[in-house]
Amino acid sequence: MHLPSGDPRIMPLPELTGYADPLLHSQGLYIDGQWLPRRGVPVVNPSTGDTLTEIADAGIADATAAIDAAAGAAPGWRATPARHRAEILRRWFHLMTEHADALATLISLENGKTLADARGEVAYAAEFFRWYSEEASRIQGEYRRTPSGSHTILVDHEPIGIAVLITPWNFPAAMAARKIAPALAAGCTVVLKPALETPLTACAMARLGEEAGVPPGVVNVLTTQSPGELTNAMLADARVRKLSFTGSTSVGRLLLAEAGRHVISCSMELGGNAPFIIMDDADLDAALDGAMVAKMRNAGEACTAANRFYVQAGIHDAFVEGLTARMARLRVGAGYDPRTQCGPMITPAAVQKIDRLVSSAVRHGAQATTGGAPLQGPGFFYPPTVLVNVPAAAAISQEEIFGPVAPVYRFDTEDEMVTMANNTEYGLAAYLYTRDIPRAMRLGKRLETGMLGINRGLVSDPAAPFGGVKQSGLGREGGVTGILEFTEPKYYAVDF
Ligand code: NAP
To answer: What is the pTM of this model?
Structure first.
């Protein structure tokens, strides 16, 4: 692990493209096509701890205005031909691609992730606009006779109505795009509430949407210090018909309870605790490459991040040696420094949580083969860490680490591994390395997960259904099914 010399964490901000691009400089509330430039809430650069800028703090009246705007725009937007909606989404894709470098810098500044990860996120986010521009005109209905022959069944998928979208800080562009694009493609209007740590990316994306031709009121953005109060007010408004949330399982539970009071349709993309499984017959180098992607994308701050490495006894020591060498080589530093391979954590609290989990595992018998303690600031840094001999009962086996720490567990038999892998309330992603594909498919059926990477450390793709089982969520985003989360089937019983 290397902290770069000469403290490159203090690169002057005006030199950064993300700051220089006026199109990405929109900050404030975005309601009914108007930017309301208010200030008051600092946005912190986690690479330095400095304040980047200030953003608006929306109140209940702003939330009502945003719902009014979404309701006002709804009839026009749902009546807009799907082809026309698709063309706007397609332009949004092109604009994100044109402004990719500047957007990536902005993401890196407010989130801390490396520029390479931020560029990957922008490309991934933009793809949702392209994919749903293609899906907008392909929503399938149904036409069939009843089994008794009594009448004909026609099913149409109508836009569900106004959608409230709540997104986390770890993928500020991708999580917003994964909701906005299918919602708009389906004919819904939306209010987006981004995370307080990363509001600038959401504002920049809304600005690009405006430039792409999204009519006023179709997309509204509220930044706030009172997310619970504001969301509850919006869910209590009878015009809101959909809540699409990505974030922690604990907040997801609160929102499900609140939405239940008003019987609002919910899509929930919640926490994960992904097992990364390596069988004796795996290709070791491929498994190490995959492990680095699954663990270190976003410095471990990903819901799909490998949280527990289960390694079969015959390959365990070689894997630990290889992983330790790769993790120890990573360069830690400011996310926006192009040389950085592992950026800061989002907040000091995130560093403290990781420290608590690692210290507790070590107290219970684990050893760190590299890393193992927080780094000095400025900025909120935890180094790449590998832990071995981790007791199965350690808190780190049950909680999302959300940081660059890889706990490794040894196993002997398939049954033992399946029991350990499934021993969690989560079920979002899992990874499995083996050269024996029939075995992988057989084990895949036994793993409680919404997504399984077989000989791959990355599962996300806009064309695939993303989502989890158990406490990891409800519904799917992306793919063919993602758009249906924003529609309601209407059945016509027809006697011709
Ligand atoms: P979080 O604390 O649950 O926050 C997520 C969003 O919910 C933020 O916009 C937050 O606003 C808002 N929020 C917080 N309390 C709320 C309340 N009472 N009512 C309404 N909204 C509220 O999660 P996070 O720390 O930002 O993100 C990390 C979590 O997200 C991890 O658990 C990760 O696994 C999960 N995640 C899941 C997926 C997936 O696809 N399954 C993808 C990415 C992340 P504030 O910022 O103002 O608090």
So the answer is: 0.96
For the domain made up of 18-270+473-492, the CATH class stated in words is alpha beta
- Residues 6 or more apart from 352 whose CB is under 8 A from it? none
The answer for 122, left when phi > 0, alpha when psi is -120 to 50, beta otherwise, is alpha
What integer best gives the mean pLDDT of the chain?
A: 95
Looking from the CA of residue 346, the nearest atom of ligand 1 is 25
Q: Give one DSSP letter per residue of 439-450, joined into a string.
A: HHHHHHHHS--S
What are the helix (H) ranges across 174-245?
A: 174-186, 199-212, 227-235
- The alpha carbon of 168 and the centre of ligand 1 are apart by a number of angstroms equal to 4
Q: Separation of 167 CA from ligand 1 center, angstroms?
A: 6
Ligand 1 neighbourhood includes 199 CB (under 6 angstroms): no
249 alpha carbon – ligand 1 mean position (Å): 8
- 15 carries an active-site annotation: no
Domain ranges of the chain: 18-270+473-492, 274-454
pLDDT of residue 19: 63
Any atom of ligand 1 within 6 Å of the Cβ of 270 = yes
The answer to whether the CB of 176 falls within 8 A of the CB of 208 is no
Residue 457 to residues 12, 26, 286, 296: CA-CA distances in angstroms? Answer: 35, 35, 9, 10
Q: Which numbered atom of ligand 1 lies nearest the CA of 224? A: 47
For the stretch 68-97, pLDDT in tens is 999 999 999 999 999 999 999 999 999 999
List of the chain residues with pLDDT < 50: 1-12, 14
| pLDDT, tens digit, 9 for 90 and up, residues 259-286 | 999 999 999 999 999 999 999 999 999 9
What would the pLDDT profile of 445-475 be if each residue is shown by its tens digit? 999 999 999 999 999 999 999 999 999 999 9
The CATH homologous superfamily for domain 274-454 is Aldehyde Dehydrogenase; Chain A, domain 2 (3.40.309.10)
Given the residues 210, 269, 400, 477, select the one marked as catalytic. 269
Distance 402 CA to ligand 1 centre (A): 13
Chain centre to alpha carbon of residue 181: 15
The number of CA neighbours under 13 Å toward the Cβ of 289 is 7
